[in-house]
Amino acid sequence: MSKILVIQPHKMLQHAIALSLFPQYQARMASSIPESSEIKDVDAVIVDAASLRETHGLSAQAIRLLQGWNVPIIWIDSVDSSAMPIDDNFVAVRTPIAKKSLQSAVAQCLGESPKRAGKRTRTTDQEDRPSRNAAASEEPIKGEVIELVDVVEEVPKIQDTNAS
Fold first, then answer.
1. Whole-angstrom Cα distance, residue 111 to residue 38?
2. Tens of pLDDT, residues 59-88
3. DSSP 3-state helix, strand, coil percentages of the chain (rounded to 5)?
4. What is the pairing mode between strands 90-94 and 2-7?
């Protein structure tokens, strides 16, 4: 089973991403970018750059640290970021995150067949390892966004105290 490190500062999003990867992958969570020595036993890393930028900021030093890692990295961002490291080890996924696009990006990083990532069919003329740029051009899948909560506003009932 492949081990994936998820760098996500928000607990709810950590849980949602872990659920979308289960049962194919074993996910380990971190709320910030760890030292290089802590990633030796993982097969891939998922970095939610958009969330990191909102909470801690995403420094140039942190990006240089990521570029030095020898593992495939899935870069989740809400914008076309010039800060995104350009490398063969990086696959870009745009927010909002769809379960299928995340699974597809993980499969690309690990060199797995799309079937394992949740796709039903595969043509025989496809390469065993699809182009890493395919996930960057993928549009978000409507209706399959990972929703964490639904906000429901209720109007408080006013009790009639003048009832006779």
1. 22
2. 888 888 888 888 999 999 887 655 566 667
3. 30, 20, 55
4. unpaired
Burial level of 116, CB count in 10 A (0-12/13-18/19+)?
A: middle
Q: Please check the confidence at residue 48 and state whether its pLDDT lies above 60.
A: yes
Task: Mention every residue, 6+ apart, whose C-beta is less than 8 A from residue 83.
Answer: 49, 58, 60, 63
What sign does the dihedral 39-45-50-55 (CA atoms) show?
A: negative
The set of residues, in sequence order, having a beta carbon less than 8 Å from that of 149 and lying 6+ positions away, is 12
Task: Give CA separation, 157 vs 81, 150, 160, 162, 163, in Å.
Answer: 48, 21, 9, 15, 15
Helix H segments across 25-98?
49-55, 60-67
Q: What is the token pair recorded at 72?
A: 């495939």
* CATH assignment, 2-137: 3.40.50.2300
**Local structure of residue 71 (DSSP, 8 states):** S
Q: Which two tokens stand for residue 132?
A: 């890493």
Query: For residue 163, what are the CA distances in angstroms to 71, 118, 127, 160?
Result: 71, 61, 76, 6
CA–CA separation, 83 and 126 (whole Å): 31
Structure tokens at 50: 């958009």
